[in-house]
Design goal:
- This protein is mainly alpha-helical.
- The protein has one domain (9-71).
- Helices cover 74% and strands 6% of the residues.
- It contains three helices and two strands.
- The protein has a two-stranded antiparallel ribbon.
- Helix 1 (7-28) runs antiparallel to helix 3 (48-71).
- The protein is elongated and about 55 Å long.
- The two termini are 23 Å apart.
- The model has no long low-confidence stretch (mean pLDDT 87).
- This is DUF3311 domain-containing protein.
- Keywords: Membrane, Transmembrane, Transmembrane helix.
- The chain crosses the membrane at residues 18-37, 49-68.
């Protein structure tokens, strides 16, 4: 029979997941990837770079909220 996770284990796992998410989004918002999207292209009249940053930011908020709610 497996022991259930204690609150400290759950808290530790949540912290590790949130740290991973923070690192991932740090990488997604550094210059090499931003530079790849920094060209004259537009999607529906919106510059591609702005769209990339906005979608990345929304994904960060959604993933963080999902991880926090899932762990409680």
């Amino acid at each position: 029979m497996m022991p259930e996770n204690t609150p400290s284990d759950t808290s530790r796992q949540r912290g590790q997941r949130l740290l991973f998410v923070a690192g991932l989004f740090t990488l997604l918002l550094t210059y090499p990837l931003l530079g790849a999207f920094d060209h004259g292209g537009r999607v529906a009249g919106v510059p591609v770079l702005y769209l990339y940053v906005l979608l990345t930011w929304l994904l960060l908020i959604g993933l963080t909220g999902w991880l926090v709610r899932k762990a409680t």
